[in-house]
Amino acid sequence: MPLIAYAAISFDGWRMGWIIIGATVFVIGFFPNFFLLHRRPEDIGLLPDGGPVKDSSENNKKQVEEPIFSRAEAMKTSAFWFLIIFTALVYPIQAGISLHQAPHLIERGVSAGTATLIISTFSAISGASALFYGLAVRRFGARTNLFVSAICLALGCILMNKVQGSGLGYLAAIFFGLGIGGVLCVLPIIWADYYGRSNFGAIRGVVLTVQVGAQAIGPILSGALRDWTYNYDLSLLVFSFMAILSAFICPLIRPPSH
User: Fold this and answer.
1) Where do the domains of the chain lie?
2) Are 97 and 239 spatial neighbours (Cβ–Cβ below 8 Å)?
3) What percent of the chain is predicted at pLDDT more than 70?
4) 3-class state of residue 46 by DSSP
5) What is the C-alpha to C-alpha distance for residues 119 and 112, in angstroms, rounded to an integer?
6) Which of 77, 95, 132, 206 is the most interior residue, by most CB within 10 Å?
7) Per-residue pLDDT averaged across 10-19, rounded?
């Protein structure tokens, strides 16, 4: 999307950029969802992790019973609140750096075109890494993957603070993409694993209130600290600390029980 926007703006200004972005979202976002999205795996003869519903008795024995928590029951568990704190720590980083990444790179002497490529690298790594996190979460556990994501976020923030040219900018984007890819992929999985799908919407409704609020705070915090100090160093330092703190929370997130 940054590459598409940059090309459209270069061709015919920012108005054309918005038109092209809107058209791209409509084509890529609307049609696949409308024609390909199913409500749940069972509707097409699958289990959540891809296994067939009707399987041999041996495989059926291996199926783990899905937990069922109401929203009220979920909110009484410690895992719920540790996951809320984790969410409140990582999403200001995601939104704050994403929105201010380009001006920070340009202030550090990176050209606008190169900054666009660096941001696209971060986005590409984020999307690609989610595929690997989706596989790794069953092999190594959700908490371990969340921990790795938080560490990658911290490294991305630290490296971004040291950027003086495009080379370190790309490296920072790689680690930041690995961190965000993990957060976006693993957090919904761990909520479903811990509390089941029966009341997933009600539980995630509470979580998304915190998540969207945190995403709103991140850019404001980053921008305010930049205006106060005339650079992004302090905001990146704050985000680094938040990422490290979120990593320390991961071992405390344990599966709940009724």
Assistant:
1) 70-252
2) yes
3) 93
4) strand
5) 11
6) 95
7) 86
User: Using one digit for the tens of pLDDT, what is the confidence trace for 193-218?
Assistant: 999 888 888 999 999 999 999 999 99
Alpha helices per DSSP H over the chain = 2-25, 31-36, 57-62, 71-74, 78-107, 112-140, 142-161, 166-195, 200-229, 233-249
| Tokens, residue 22 | 């809107």
Structure tokens at 215: 């995403």
Q: Could you tell me the two tokens for 207?
A: 């979580």
Instruction: Determine the average pLDDT of the residues in 33-38.
Output: 85
Superfamily of chain region 70-252: MFS general substrate transporter like domains (1.20.1250.20)
For residues 52 and 45, the answer to whether their CB atoms sit within 8 Å is: yes
Q: What is the pTM of this model?
A: 0.79
Taking alpha carbons only, the member of 157, 150, 146 closest to residue 98 is 157
Instruction: Provide the sign of the torsion angle of the four alpha carbons 148, 226, 104, 109, taken in this order.
Output: negative
What is the C-alpha separation between 25 and 6, in angstroms, rounded?
A: 15
Confidence tier at 62 by pLDDT (50, 70, 90) = very low
